[in-house]
Amino acid sequence: MATTKGTYVRKADGKWWTGKRSLVVSSVVPLTRSGITLSRKLSGMNCYWLGLNDNGGVSTGSLPSHATITSAFDGMQAMGVNLVRAHTVGMSAGTSLSYLTGFTGTTPNYVEANMDSADWAVYQAGLHGIVLQCPLTDNWNYYHGGLWNFVHWAYQQNSSGITDVNEGFTGGTGKDDPNQRIFFANTTAGLRVRALFKAYITQWLNHVNPYTGLAYKDDPTIAIVETGNEIYYAAQLGTNEWTQDIASYVKGIAPNKLVADGSGSSGTAVSAMPGLTAAAVDIVTPHYYPVSADWSSPVAFGAANSHFTGTNTARQQFAADFAAGHAAGRVVIMGEYPWTRSDVAAWWADIEASGIQGDMAWAFIAGTEVHGGAFGSDDYPVHYPYLSGNEATYAPALSTHIKAMVAGVVTTPASATLATDSFSGTNNNPWNSSLWTITAGQNSAGAAATIQNNRGNVYLGTLGGYGGRLAAKFGGGPYTNIDFTQIIQMPNSTSDYFIEIATRADVLLTGNNGYYANMYMYGQLNVNRVINGVSTNLANNLSMPSFGVGVDCKIRVYQVGTAYKLKFWVASATEPTAWNFEVTDAGIASGYVGTIFKSGDTAGGNIIVDEVVLTDGAAGPGGGATGGSGTGGGTVTPPATGTGVWYSGQSDTASTADGSFATWRGRSVEIGGQWASTANPSDNVAAADWAFGTGSAFACSRARPGQLRRPVRTTRGGRRRSSR
Amino acid sequence: MKSAWGSRQANNLFIRFAHEMNGNWYPWRVSDSDVANFKASWIRYYNLVQANFPGAQMVWCPNAGTSSTGDNGFVASYGFPDDIYPGDAYVDVVSVDSYNRDPWVNDQTSFNSKMSSASGMETYRAFAQTHGKPMSIGEWANASVNNGGGGGDAPNFFQYFHDWLVTYGSTTRAAGTVLYEVNFNVPGYGDHYEIYQGGVPNPNQPLSNAKYVSLW
After folding, report:
1. Residues 117-136 of B with CB under 8 A from A
2. What pTM was estimated for this model as a whole?
3. Which of residues 526-585 of A touch B (CB under 8 A)?
4. Which of A8, A37, A514, A565 has the most C-beta neighbours closer than 10 Å?
């Protein structure tokens, strides 16, 4: 039985409701700024080739096809991207395929046809819900032209006070001629150069995109205009005069644009950026490329690096940078970073937790074209679908980060592994002495910890009578943040055996100091905190399922700050989300980690131990890398509460999805949600009856159809029953 | 679906696939023996959505009911159905259908207890938070007829539920926040659920109707 449900509304003034009363529409909703925040979080990729492609390094480049561009936005959208830095959409001057190809005398030659790829890219970005950040020129002499072209043209028209910089294309070496720096000079000659640049800005902002019917200045898809790409010299001038002049000039023509200071380049600290004080600048946008001093090899984000202030690591530099940007009241968006570093998960977590409003990895590449070196070198290509090999292996984690950033959540970086042991080795050999310190109790004659069948085996001696005790300290220490997991299998015996998980304990796990989780194999858990022999019971005879004889079980103890958590589960099952026991206790701040094995009333018995993993628990319970595929085990540090605003709707049937609800609630339009339905018993949806309507049907006032938000149910027909 | 949605932003479409799969009343119910197959099929569907309609949001939405009869072998009988959660990589929004019945509540203490029970909305919200997902309430309503699990008019329930939404509601998709809720204003079902019925308040719950009008 097909049915139609759902009633969602828009406000009487025709605007889509953004409050709690109804479900919302947006095309590219204009991006706005409030202090250091934007109206939504952004994340994505650099995509430098959208207006002019270098085709993997071909010097003159070519205009990329519509299909190539559309495919790129499809791919980036699939990755969760909602922000793209589109260099050659903004910088289109200086080549035969540029918007501004050159001058005849003092008359500029603009070629509208050369904007076709850029126009299509802007159009597609809007359709994909992606906003663009467009630099207006480039410091570097690459295939697309740059600021030196304006210097050259000014020289051609009047050589007074200008040294010609006529580089031509230097083959991708990114030459940075000191003579081009007159571009920033507030001198008579410098202002002649600047006038040509401003004229280009005027032309570009007023360019009308035939695919949208909108001038660039009016298109919210081009949300951010950047004064240039890596024009780091603007941060060395000792004045914000040029940056303020250009930023205010852009806003004079396009007041709704957000303007970014383009002086961000790797090694330029935010504290030096003119945009911190230039009033017309909204955004500072640093870049990070941690590399060796000679740029020949990548360096981890967390490694000391002469590339940054002092020997800051990239992570330290970033921390200083976003603090400086926020202190100055500027939005911070990370403009470029390489994502193929071994510790990128920690980098992403830094970004997500920092409060910056956006970030863009370098770089999304056209089709399957080659871009620079191999994956993992100092080039960082992403294609979609991901190319096989390393890109396919690691790029899903990039997508996960992008989605987390957009959603405003923080993925947990991989826990720092402190020690692991899986007990491979020759039978009867002792445990690895570099990992374990084994101490046998006085009634433990014959007790030993050996390797058997590539597993750890604890034999509790020949005496029995509950006397056997073997303490096994694991890893180094002392540790403050502990996340300790291991497999335990109790012996095939009816005798009573115990284990105790010791954390923050004394170095020999004597029982005199530390936290001890005492687990009786048939169903009791006690947790004690012991200080100088004085025991405080934190968990008293809590019931727990039997470990089960001969069954691998996993036990995990997590202790960070005052939090103590413990869980156990059958090893073959998925780790449960919930902890079996949690307590807050501040008694002991740090100590050693290990397990104490205790015998029962009869002699002998072997407890099996395996897959012992100790990590730095500061990475958070739930741990696990965000890398690899999907979201992995990454968890979040979420906001504790919401904003008090949400989307609200009503299910309704076809018979009442007639406007009556909207009338009742004083709303002008109601929208029916949809069920897919079929009477086909094979469960094939033979006639899905989606009818979402169109933007025009809902009287959307925007240039493009609005987007309706509603839950959609895919069901086969059938009766529905409520909870009971 | 993608064709019908057109050029609108894909991630504004929420697909509540196989909803209330933990109950025993739908053909797509998941019994214990179906758990692995269910997860595999969800992941397959998710991947199909990603391939064909990238960005569309997949909503995992069990029913809060812990069916007490006739459910032998169905995972709903175990309270919170985390055993049929397909995995963080395959879910965009954690959701739950939850009705004010079984138990029906209309005082703060009982409401709090219901919310934090094994299958309560707060338990789902905490699960969403742990897993880095926003949450939603796929269906909710007061069961206004005292002939089974319901209990009558329940204006306080509306107030407490609204209070909870004020605390956790957010239009930003953040972990553990409530992105949307959908009132089940559907006739039938013994006149249980509707608050607005054919142009007038449902006579079974006029106070609930008034509370909804005042708060929403």
Report:
1. 127, 129-132, 134, 136
2. 0.50
3. 574, 576-577
4. A8
Model ipTM value: 0.91
Helix axes B206-215, B155-168, angle to 10 degrees: 20
Q: What is the mean pLDDT of chain B?
A: 83
Contact by Cβ (8 Å): A132, A124: no
Could you read off the pLDDT of A337-393 as tens digits, one per residue?
988 887 788 899 889 888 899 999 999 998 888 775 555 555 688 998 888 877 887
The Cα A583–Cα A597 span in angstroms is 24
In what order do the strands lie in the sheet containing A498-505?
A436-440, A469-479, A591-598, A498-505, A514-520, A524-531, A534-543
Name, in order, each residue with C-beta under 8 angstroms of A705's C-beta and a sequence gap of 6 or more.
A27, A694, A695, A696, B6, B7, B8
- Any chain B CB within 8 A of the CB of A465? no
Question: In this complex, how many residue pairs, one in chain A and one in chain B, have their CB atoms less than 8 Å apart?
Answer: 250
Which of B3, B7, B68, B147 is the best residue to mutate to test the A interface, defined by the most A CB atoms within 10 Å of its own CB?
B7
Considering only alpha carbons, which residue of chain A is nearest residue B51? A78
Retrieve residue B188's tokens: 């039938």
Chain B neighbors of A661, CB-CB under 8 A: 185, 196
pLDDT at residue B171, rounded to an integer: 77
**3-class SS letters over A667-688:** CCEEEEEEEECCCCCCCCCCCC
Chain A: give the shortest CA distance to residue B131, in Å: 5
- Nearest chain A residue to B134, by CA: A407
Please answer yes or no on whether B8 and A639 come within 8 Å at the CB atom: no
**In this structure, what token pair is assigned to residue A618?**
């500061």
Which residue, chain included where needed, has tokens 């909710």?
Answer: B140
The pLDDT value recorded for residue A85 is 98
The answer to whether the Cβ–Cβ distance between A129 and B198 falls below 8 Å is no
- Using CA atoms, how far apart are residues A292 and A377, in angstroms rounded to an integer? 12
For residue range A477-496, list pLDDT tens digits in order: 778 778 899 999 887 655 56
Is A622 in contact with B130 (Cβ distance < 8 A)? yes
Rounded distance between C-alpha atoms, residue A582 and residue A431, angstroms: 31
Q: Is the pLDDT of residue A433 over 80?
A: yes
Asked if residue A344 lies in contact with residue A301, where contact means CB atoms within 8 angstroms, the answer is: yes
- Burial readout A333-358 (b: 16 or more C-beta within 10 A, e: otherwise): bbbbbbbbbebbbbbbbbbbebebbb
SS3 A90: helix
